[in-house]
Specification:
By secondary structure, this protein is α/β, with parallel strands linked by helices. 27% of the residues lie in helices and 35% in strands. The chain has ten helices and 18 strands.
């Protein structure tokens, strides 16, 4: 059994409260909690919902658990909801609004999280939307809240949370759409701006925008070179949704695919381009980059090229050298570097 995280341990310390017939667990951890919850509720229907494709694939392997990955929670009249509070407050607000549109009028909502995640904000976010709330437990720098008599929403439409913003790089300017939970929500981050201004010229062929976020890279290249064919991948269903919205808004076509790394990507590409993630939580994690760069080789065409942007302090050069033999530095300043390899 996977080691239980502190939020899960806090929940199970209150296992007598975790009883329902239609149970929803949102933003769960990849630990043993879902198995323990199923043991406590052997006859209940338990839905494990995540915006994260890797988390959903993990949950799908647990007997008796219905795993869902999507940008919107399915409606199933849940009588017990357990929400692991995220670090992004706008995402939490959107998700809580979604929860109040899919649960039973007598549902109990448990919100758990580490203090550093900002879980205390849940009280303020739900203050006007419930008749009863209580901090029922705290331990190991975590808090568990109970909210009851929820004010339900008639429906939930993620389009209400769209945020449009302008992207300008070189002589290309366009509007992008983001939703809470997407990387650098509602703005062009500096690293991606550096990448766009130093992107390779590709006149035709197939392009993979890896870790696509709101689809900014694919949209920029597509407006610059309309003959290109795009596949955009991300582990987040919120990101693939935002990418679809951005591409459609700019009259561009492309596939948006959920994938943990490159595991769900097929075929070869003439360009793989990315502002790749390098964090697990708040810690720098080079295993993500190593796995991506190692897999990327198998998805490049004979003359294919990989181009990435990274913080200058990250030790990408030795990884690129180990995987490709040689690489080039297309741009570098004190904060960012753009690397390419064939």
């Amino acid at each position: 059994m996977s080691k239980l995280t502190n939020p899960s341990l806090l929940l199970l310390r209150n296992e007598d409260e975790l009883v329902g017939q239609s149970i929803l667990v949102v933003n769960f951890e990849q630990d043993g909690f879902l198995r323990e919850l199923k043991a406590l509720n052997p006859d209940a229907k338990i839905t494990a919902f995540s915006y994260n494709h890797a988390n959903a694939m993990y949950a799908s392997k647990i007997a008796g658990i219905h795993a869902v990955v999507d940008h919107t929670i399915p409606n199933n009249n849940y009588d017990l909801v357990i929400y692991y509070y995220p670090k992004a407050k706008p995402e939490a607000q959107m998700c809580l609004d979604n929860i109040r549109a899919v649960c039973h009028q007598d549902a109990q909502l448990f919100v758990v999280g580490e203090n550093k995640s900002g879980v205390k904000s849940a009280e303020k976010q739900l203050k006007d939307h419930c008749g009863f709330s209580n901090k029922i437990d705290s331990a190991k720098h975590c808090i568990l809240y109970l909210f009851y008599e929820l004010t339900l929403n008639d429906n939930f439409a993620i389009s209400r949370y769209h945020k449009q913003f302008q992207v300008k790089a070189g002589d290309i300017e366009f509007t992008a759409i983001s939703v809470p939970g997407v990387f650098n929500h509602g703005a062009l981050d500096v690293g991606t701006a550096v990448l766009l201004n130093n992107a390779p010229t590709v006149s035709k062929g197939k392009v993979l925008d890896f870790a696509c976020g709101a689809g900014i890279i694919a949209t920029y290249l597509g407006l610059k070179q309309p003959e290109l064919e795009f596949v955009c991948s991300d582990v987040s269903a919120l990101a693939t949704y935002a990418t679809e919205q951005t591409l459609a808004l700019n009259d561009l076509k492309g596939q948006a695919i959920l994938s943990d790394g490159l595991t769900d990507i097929n075929g070869k590409f003439d360009l793989i381009i990315s502002n790749p993630p390098f964090h697990t939580g708040i810690a720098t994690d080079y295993t993500i980059a190593e796995a991506f760069l190692s897999s990327a080789k198998q998805h490049l065409s004979k003359q294919g090229k990989l181009t990435i942007v990274a913080n200058s302090f990250l030790k990408y050069p030795p990884i690129l050298e180990a995987q490709f033999g040689q690489y080039s530095t297309d741009f570098k300043n004190t904060k960012f570097a753009v690397y390419s390899a064939k």
